[in-house]
Structures are given as C-alpha cells and as structure tokens.
Amino acid sequence: MSEIQVERGPRAFRGNYRWVICALLFLAITINYVDRLIFGVLKPVLEVEFGWSESDYANIVVAFQGAYAIGLLLVGRLIDRIGARWGLGIAIGVWSLAAAAHAGASSVIQFAMARFALGVGESAGFPGAVKAVSEWFPKRERALATGIFNAGSNVGALLTPILVPILVLAFGWRAAFIVTGLSGLVLMAVWFLVYRRPREHPRVTHAELAHIESDPPDAPGKISWGQALKRREAWAFIVGKFLTDPVWWLFLFWLPDFFGKTYDLNLLTFGPPLVAVYLLADVGSVGGGWLSSRLIHRGWSVNRGRKTAMLVCALCVTPISIAVFADNLIAAVAVIGLAAAAHQGWSANLFTLVSDTFPKHAVATVVGLGGFAGAIGGMFIAKVAGWTLEATGSYVPLLAFASVTYLIALGVIHLLTPQLKPAALPPA
Description:
By secondary structure, the chain is mostly helical. The chain has two domains: 12-215, Up-down Bundle (Growth Hormone, Chain: A), CATH 1.20.1250; 225-423, Growth Hormone, Chain: A (Up-down Bundle). Helix content is 77%, strand content 0%. It contains 15 helices and no strands. α3 packs across α5 and α5 (125-136) runs antiparallel to α6 (139-171).
C-alpha cells in the first residue's frame, strides 16, 4: 500500500511536487556541465604548469568523449533496469568523485584517466533525467519539463567561466576541482533523500498522481539494443541526435575561437558574447518545450504539436549561415544566440519523442543509443572543424552545415514516424 496523501475537502489541491523533481534534474544537469567544462576553462593554466602540447590536451579531451560515447551506449539499459533513482543517483556520485579526482592528477595519463571516469559517469545524466521525466510527467508536460532540466546545460556553461577563475585565484586550480566535485556529492545525497517513483512518494497527492498517470498505460513488452534498433521510432531519435548534436558541440568548443578570429576578441572580452548566447539558449530550451506542450494542451495531437515546435526551431537555425558576414558583434550574437536557443528547443522536443513512442521501461535504453550517436557525431564535427579551418580559415562551411541539418533531420524523423505512434514491442 502506497503512502500517497489523499486530499480531502471541497478545496482539494492537486499538488505540484513533480516540479520539485524537475528542479533537482535541472541542478543535476547544471553540475554535470560545470564538471564537464571546467577542464577547458583551466586549459591555459594547466598547459603552463605541466608543459602540455596541443596533442596532449587533445588526447585528454578524446578520453572524455570516448568514454561518454561508450557510456551512453551502455547506461541506458542499466537505468531502465534499476530505475531513475538508483541509476541517476549512482551516476552523480561517479562523476562527482571523478571531477574531484582531477585535483590529484599531475600527468597526461592521470588526467586522461580522470576524464575517462568523468565521461562514464556523465553519460548517465541525460538518459537518467529523461527516464525520471517519463516517470513523473504526463506526455503533454514532458517537453516542458525536459526543456527546463535541459536548460541546466546552458546555466552550467554560464557559471563555469565565472566561478572557476574566482576559485582558482582564491585557492588554486586543484581546489576548483574539489569544490565542484563536492557540490555533486551534496546533490547526490539530496537526490536519494527526495526521489521516489510518484506512486511511492509520500508528498504526492492522489490528484497529482492521477494527473501524472493520466496517459493510457504502457503496453507490456521488453526492449534490448537489438529490439530497439529494429524500430523506426528509435531510428528517428538516433538520426536526429547524430545530425544535430554536432552543432551544439560546435557551439561549446568553437564559439570562443569564432568570436576571437572574426571580431578580434580575447579571453577577457569574449565572455559577454558567450553569456548572451547561452542566456538565449536557456530561453529557447524552456520556450521550445513550452510551445509543444501548449499546442498539445490546446487540443493538437502529440504528433502535430511536437513536430510543429521542431519545425519552428529548425527554421530559426537557418540564419546562422550569415553570422560570419554580420556587420557587427551584436548582430552576430543575435543570430548565433537565436540558433543556440532553437537547438535547445529542438533538443527538448527530440528527447520527448522517445517517451512519446516508447514505454517507460524502454526510454533510457533508446536515449542511450541516440546519445551515443550524438557523441559520435560530435567527435566527427571536431575533426571536420579542424580540417576545414586549416584548409580554408573560414567558418562558412561549418555554419552552412548547421543551417540546414535540422530541416534534414526533421524530414527524416517525419518519414520514419509520420504519426508518432507507440512502437510495437515484443511481448514480455
């Protein structure tokens, strides 16, 4: 018998505890990104102290990206088996300990080992968060909830270049890794104290539980990598991630270089443009999820509402190809910020496609497969960006790719899932 509170009286309150869970997911993704990006912010300091070459730094970065890709392939099925509470909770602990372990590293191999462990732990962040949203929100609210927790990636990208230099100047670079790692361990403790499935949670009212479970029940069935890869619905997500995730990786790792080369900015002056871009990305993350949820709330089908929101996002990315030719920095920031916002709005809806088409017990598996594809795409774009810039010295080909890839991805998604119907799974 669950401990769900049953409201009484004529002024019964449905309750909104599910948004507390969403806030925890937002904090988890924020810390995830701080731990991910701190190494890049400290790159100049570490290169001077240890005498690294660019190849040494690249090898350490590849250790993280490789572990992240492999982890995404593996953690999805694990989270589907053990649930979001244990799956995401353990992951937070792993990546926090790995982040703190950087403080004890003093060689390329030791840093690579710490980054590898960080990549394994962080790979469970998004599959676990999407799994939690599928457990706590009905379909009509999932894109909004996903957009909110996904905004944590932009907040993390904003906080890292602000907080890390303060910590380094006050206590040294090793302390910066320790502080960020400890913050994750605190969050892990809170997560285990707070998170339960809705039906098991004492803070969930009867009315809120009814709202959370208002969708038709999931069909029984089982899922494996092989079974998922036989489903067109899974390939819609996988292709979408493979084609569009590289644009976000391009933003994360190449925007400072773009602003520096195009507008003669440096470490002290490209901060404000980056802050503006990621603030706009935050707005897009929440706004894109809100748009599809609003359309569905107004009576649109899930298929029509979700794809309309994704089309709006895809169209908002197209002007990015002219960013190189913008007359001034403000115009360039506006165009790139619009594209970053559109990507995050697109991402919120793309993640939600999985819970639209797969039952809760299969969500993390499919998200892991798509995340793996997106990480591989990110590794490709890094290589392509290097070759392109060395050969041409221009960002035009890269931005041209970014401007059309969302429309191509949406076309493929629609061909694979024209109605966004639940995937047919083999019987349990």
